[in-house]
Amino acid sequence: MSEDEGRRERSFLGDTGAVLKGMATVFKQTFRPDDTEEYPKVIAPIPERAHTGRHLLNRHENGLEKCIGCELCAFACPADAIWVEGEDNDPENPTSPGERYAKDYQINYLRCIMCGLCVEACPTRALTLTSYFEMSYTSREDAILTKEQLLELPPELGTTPGAEEGL
Amino acid sequence: MDWLDWLLLVARVVILFFTLLISVLLYIWFERKVIADMQTRMGPMRAGPRGLLITLADGIKLFFKEGILPTNADRPVYLLAPVLAMFPGFLAFATIPFGTSVTLFGRKLDFQLVDLDIGILWVLAMTSIMVYGVVLAGWSSGSNYPLLGAVRSSAQMISYEVAMGLSLVAVLMYSGHLSLSEIVAAQDRVWNVVPMFPAFVIYLICGIAETNRPPFDLAEAESELVAGFHTEYSGITFAMFFLGEYVVTVTVAAIGVTLFLGGWRGPAPDFLPWLWPLLWFAFKVTAVIYVFVLIRATLPRVRYDRLMAFGWKVLIPFGLVWILITGAVVVLPDHFDLDRGTVLTWAAIALGVTLLLSFVPTGRKTHEEATR
């Protein structure tokens, strides 16, 4: 009988009781606080160490770009979203410390899958991910971010054009 | 009847129609909010204050969407079916008394469109006609899944209509009237739900099955039948099915309130004596609908064969037995000079003992043991 323990004898009242118990359980859920976040009215804080959004090209403290144009990020990219064109630095007026710099740097956010492999591949920590996720575009050209755009910090969440329409 | 009577009649029809329409819009919002609360969500929040106008927005969207007519569809029937699915709910509501009366222009106006002598038969007839909408929709779509959904739905609705009829027969025998206003009048001391509790439970279960609501929504089981009988419908025709389904839910709840929960009866202060019955009625209908929503949120969809087995092997025999008991309660007091309440008490005790006996192990193997 040991394996039969806990098995309920089927009975009319027992079954009815089980249904009522289930309904009581569901009813109790009514009083639990809602988990819904009313984005974009209320933008819940994003964990500080969450890096799940747009890329950022970093600079050294002296203003020189960290990117050395090595194209390792482009090679690592499984979606072929990154385009890098390296060139030798002008010795008089260097863009980055060292020999080479990125003349052109583009990321196509129609291709990017936010996997972060580019960040892992980067030897100089020039490329990092921010937690800015409000990226929606109305044309293909807009979705390809240029080097100038990637060097800028992304805007605050909720300030993207069009966000107010969701309010 | 002079012109004023005709005018008042038309006005009452129009007002009742739009009141029901608006209450259905509110009720869809209510259901979505309640379900959302039970799932720790917020539900619709955007259209109107706390999403109150969400159904209106949905309706406008559906109204302007393209209605697609499938190549294989039987055109006239395909367009007729949603109408047949939508209007019976409204028509059934015509006989339901939802208040006392008010005096306007020297005429006494009941809060009931028509007081039919055979009110309850009218209601049953209308809920039956709804089946045609579903069946014709499935048949005329010229597609497999709608047809399967329609076949299921017709079998289900016809089966559960029998049990529903039985539960209503018990109430009719007990109160001795077919007219809904008379049935409400007979509940001035005790609501029918007290002596007729088993019938009430049967009615609630059958009501859910009649309106194709979860857990009996096999006609549109999306995991197996896409959307069932209305798979091929879009735009305004789909909106009519959707509306019809919810109108009939309100109607079924209103009938339940009328037959079992005392209709518009409730304590009322002297201030505005015609208003309180309306509020009581609305409150009771909302409460019944809340139970429907709670059941929907709790129970998983029943398997089709079990649904039919439950209807034919549990509800109908149970309904018949209850009719027998009701008959005894109605007839015996006259023959043996007893009080109806005494007979009822003994009947209730007998039923309670029977139910308790269901706890006694029968020695029959459970399904799991038999198939191990």
Explain the layout of strands and helices:
The complex is a heterodimer of chains A (167) and B (372).
Chain A: H1 12-29, E1 55-57, H2 72-76, E2 82-88, E3 100-108, H3 117-121, E4 127-129, H4 140-143, E5 144-145, H5 147-151
Antiparallel strand pairs in A: 1-4, 2-3, 3-5
Chain B: H1 3-38, H2 54-64, H3 75-93, E1 101-104, E2 107-110, H4 119-140, H5 144-175, H6 180-185, H7 197-210, H8 222-225, H9 235-260, H10 275-298, H11 304-336, H12 340-357, H13 367-370
Antiparallel strand pairs in B: 1-2
Structural class of chain B: mainly alpha
Distance between the termini of chain A: 62 Å
Unreliably modeled segments of chain B: none
| Largest beta-sheet characterization of chain B | 2 strands, antiparallel
Strand order of the largest sheet of chain B: 1-2
Q: How large a portion of the residues of chain A is in β-strands, by DSSP E?
A: 5-15%
Largest Cβ-defined interface: A-B, 21 and 21 residues
Folded structure, characterized:
The complex is a heterodimer of chains A (167) and B (372). Chain A is an alpha+beta fold and 167 residues long. In chain A, 22% of the residues lie in helices and 14% in strands. The model of chain A has no long low-confidence stretch (mean pLDDT 84). Chain B is an all-alpha fold and 372 residues long. In chain B, strands 1-2 form a two-stranded antiparallel ribbon. Chain B is globular, with a radius of gyration of 22 Å. In chain B, strand 1 (101-104) and strand 2 (107-110) form a beta hairpin. Chain A binds chain B through residues 7, 9-14, 19, 22-23, 25-27, 29-30, 32-36, 38, and chain B through 34, 36-42, 45, 294-295, 297-299, 355-356, 358-359, 361, 366, 368.
